[in-house]
Backbone:
């Protein structure tokens, strides 16, 4: 039987006949309502495990602008260090920077290498900071004539992990 045009409720099923009621009780509305919490949960989980920007895409924008060698003596042995300035020309802040240093003699032959990850080092975007890294020296001081510093890896400081 037909439902009268001016009826507010169906005489058989007792459902309201307004447009709002038809939308609320439509099966698609129920599916959307059920998937919204799931989507929100997935977004939260994805943001927790976000690794941030990949350093390799920005490596040309992180530059060692100036550096010099320094020699020292500790109770545990002789050291060679590098003191310098690192500049971040990118819009990404970086942390856990892994510095790689190669030391060469007067002939350009590699005499020593060192890597040091600076966990507490935080390099803001579009900024320059001083850095110092030191290593135990394996060879006599005159063997260390030149050095080359580069950033091997870094992590996006905005990432959770």
Residues:
């Amino acid at each position: 039987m037909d439902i009268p045009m001016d009826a507010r409720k169906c005489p058989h099923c007792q459902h309201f006949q307004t447009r709002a009621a038809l939308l609320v009780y439509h099966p698609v509305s129920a599916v959307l309502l059920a998937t919204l919490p799931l989507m929100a949960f997935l977004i939260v989980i994805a943001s927790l495990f976000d690794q941030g920007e990949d350093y390799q895409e920005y490596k040309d924008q992180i530059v060692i602008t100036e550096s010099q060698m320094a020699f020292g003596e500790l109770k545990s042995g002789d050291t060679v260090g590098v003191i310098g300035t690192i500049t971040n020309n990118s819009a990404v802040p970086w942390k856990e920077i892994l510095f790689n240093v190669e030391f060469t003699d007067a002939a350009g032959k590699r005499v020593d290498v060192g890597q040091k990850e600076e966990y507490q080092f935080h390099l803001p975007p579009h900024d320059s900071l001083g850095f110092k890294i030191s290593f135990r020296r394996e060879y006599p001081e005159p063997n260390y004539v030149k050095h080359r510093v580069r950033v091997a890896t870094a992590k996006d400081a905005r990432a959770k992990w």
